[in-house]
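A reminder from the course coordinator: this example appears on the midterm review sheet, so study it carefully.

Given structure:
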């Protein structure tokens, strides 16, 4: 009996596999049943597509935790910023400058500390704006501000 592969092993194998051509999208069949090699190639394409979508979604960025009362200057590599706020100790997050080309995706969350929390101020960089404003404020514990930025504007998703 063979040992099942873990998700990490499947993704690693799919990432190392050569790209498939247009004619290899559907499993090859003999009569009504797919051949083993045709099914394996089809499964590789499916895994490659999933890995590609996850990578494009920005799921490979940094996850940062900001202490209560701190100010954090986000970098272009940050994808999730968790702010631990407490009464009298709000957090401030300064978003990174937007590039001239491409886009950035950053999510900021008011995590709070236990059952207590304060506000999180999220500020755009320089002349950039967040939905037309210089800052946005998270006033509720577990409130999230997902943003996508390009061309000098951060858009709340």
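Designed residues:
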């Amino acid at each position: 009996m063979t040992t099942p592969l873990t998700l990490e092993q499947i993704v690693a194998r799919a990432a190392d596999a050569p790209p498939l051509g247009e004619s290899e999208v559907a499993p090859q069949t003999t009569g009504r049943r797919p051949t083993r090699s045709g099914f394996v190639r089809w499964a590789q394409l499916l895994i490659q597509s999933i890995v590609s979508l996850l990578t494009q979604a920005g799921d490979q960025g940094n996850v940062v935790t900001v202490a209560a009362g701190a100010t954090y200057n986000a970098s272009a590599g940050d994808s999730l910023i968790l702010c631990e706020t407490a009464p009298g100790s709000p957090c401030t997050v300064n978003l990174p400058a937007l590039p001239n080309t491409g886009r950035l995706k950053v999510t900021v969350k008011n995590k709070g500390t236990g059952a207590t929390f304060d506000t999180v101020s999220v500020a755009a960089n320089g002349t950039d704006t967040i939905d037309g404003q210089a800052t946005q404020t998270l006033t509720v514990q577990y409130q999230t501000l997902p943003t996508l930025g390009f061309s000098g504007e951060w858009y709340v998703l």
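The two ends are 47 Å apart (CA to CA). The chain has two domains: 7-56, 62-156.
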